[in-house]
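User: These chains co-purify. Model them together.
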Amino acid sequence: MGDPFAMAITHAHASGMGGMRGAGDLVARMQMSKGMRIEEAKAYVAKKLNVGIEDLTDPVIMNEVRTDLGIGVMTPLPGVAKGIEAKFNIAKALGIDINCVKRFMARTS
Amino acid sequence: MAQYFSRMGDGSPISVTKDEIMADLIEGSEDAADRARVPALSQGEYEHLLDIFCAPQKFMSVEAGKEVILTYDAGTLKIRRVGVNVDRIQALQIYEKLLGADTMELSHVDYSYKPVKPIAIFEQPILEQALLGTHVPLFYGAQPNLGLYSQPDGPFPNPAELMPMGKIKEAQESYEASVEDLVKDIVYVASLMYESGADGINLDTTGAAGDADFLASLIATEKLKEKYPDMCIELGMAGEFVLGMHSQLKYKGHRLAGMYPHDQLKMAELAGATIFGPVANTNTSKSSAWNLARTITFMKPVGEQANIPVHVNMGMGVGGVTVNDHPPIDIVSRSSKAMVELCRLDGL
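Assistant: Joint model of the two components:
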């Protein structure tokens, strides 16, 4: 319960990593796929992306990094990887399996 | 003495002095410490909370670098709930692109595993389409909701009717039978969603119907991890205290009734959960300071003892957040900041 302005938006600003504006989705994937706690997950992602840990919540830096790696950006310009395409690249960039990517390959190959 | 703006647990505004805030912080923390047999907050932690409550800003945030991951329960339903008429995939896109979500969860409006079971094959294509177009990790989630398995909603005799008649053994047998069916339903639905590509499964509001509800969720988690070792399972609780509705149920030798968050965590870890979501409920007749200090006292040992990521529940009515459909951001942001800064958390 609770409206999205009060809950989702407030927590995102107060203590969240910003999702795709930063690297929140990528850090989340390390918690979910490897059970990493937050410090380890942030360090792992920062190392894989070759950025500082403090850069993981910076939308300016992360937009450039995400564009370069094709791992999904907030403003999807023509030709950039989107959706499942970006998730193929996320799996490669982070060195993890992503369930839907594996199933996509199984269904198309 | 100077007066400070604050709120009660139901969100109503109050004007309080610094001494009154401090008194409530201490009382709330000591209440949690006494109940859960965990340490109360330190003087330094009380003072940090006092600073947060006395700050004049209407919005507060954690220090840069201390940000954590956000997971959600029933997120896809919350856009429709406020009368914005978008479908669920659009709701996921709104969270991902407009609300800064690190993860998202697809869910059905009848947010329990039992009602999802007969329509699961209609949920799968929606999940599969959502996965094609979104980027953030996507959970499928629902509540275990053991209450749906007793009459008149389910097949088994209603324990709440049996117990007043003194039929304790019959009530316990009904709970035990319900556990078996609930486990089957959770495993069935979660398996289909995982086969469709979900990044994780959320068991939300676990333990709402007491120890039997919690037991079913633990057994289902264990079975799912045996079946799919790579599956991410987030086990979110319903309350700070596991109600002993059956009272004698055990998981791997541990009696579940009466467990507080730091012990619930150990059960979640034993079952193989990937992320644990502890809860402390908000008391509407106490101040926000009382509620937040109490919640943090419950959560601190969880973060310190955990071997898996911990995402404390900070939705409406839990985690120091007021009980109101439109929680004020002054209290939500203070609760968010304080929880993350004082507990070793991985997410909310």
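The radius of gyration of chain B is 20 Å.
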